[in-house]
Design a protein that fits this description.
This protein has one domain: endopeptidase domain like (from Nostoc punctiforme) (endopeptidase fold (from Nostoc punctiforme)), CATH 3.90.1720. Helix content is 35%, strand content 24%. The chain has 6 helices and 8 strands; from the N terminus they run H-H-H-E-E-H-H-E-E-E-E-E-H-E. Strand 6 and strand 7 form a beta hairpin. The longest helix is centred in the middle third of the chain and has 13 residues.
């Protein structure tokens, strides 16, 4: 009985690229900037806290601010709505590692920001899941994207 169970378990084939977690891991593995990889890995799982700016809790704009400062040496405003004003707009298919993506989930004004990684994945501070790598192709994100681009020098 035990042999049959083990044999049945091992005969299934799962493609690692078919799950969201595996695709997010692939996006992380494919980062060109290894310091960016370390930064995200170090923050992954930190809880969301509105106005937070440390490992006790951080919000989306605070995470983007720290990431851009620590990894790319760029200074951006604190609030996502103000961060959206300091980028050169790009189409989504032109985004590069470190570019910012802005969303509006609650109306016309920008109310969320994430940092583009690659292959339509981005990292952000999710109010429900904390710091996480997510798929930009998910319908909820697609409907809410308002602008994206590179920080102006």
């Amino acid at each position: 009985m035990m042999v049959t169970l083990l044999s049945a378990c091992t005969s299934r084939r799962y493609s690692p690229t078919t799950t969201q977690a595996a695709r997010a891991a692939d996006a992380m593995a494919n980062l060109n900037n290894k310091d960016l990889y370390k930064f995200i890995a170090n923050w992954t799982g930190v809880k969301y806290r509105l106005g937070g700016l440390d490992k006790n809790g951080i919000d989306c704009s605070g995470f983007a601010l720290l990431l851009e400062k620590d990894i790319f040496g760029l200074k951006i405003p604190r609030r996502s709505v103000e961060q959206a004003n300091v980028i050169d707009n790009k189409n989504l298919n032109q985004l590069k590692e470190g570019d910012l993506i802005f969303f509006s989930f609650g109306g016309a004004e920008v109310d969320h920001v994430g940092v583009y990684l690659n292959n339509n994945y981005f990292v952000h501070a999710s109010p429900s899941r904390g710091i996480i790598v997510d798929d930009l192709n998910l319908p909820g994100y697609q409907k809410a994207i308002v602008k994206a681009g590179t920080i102006k020098n």
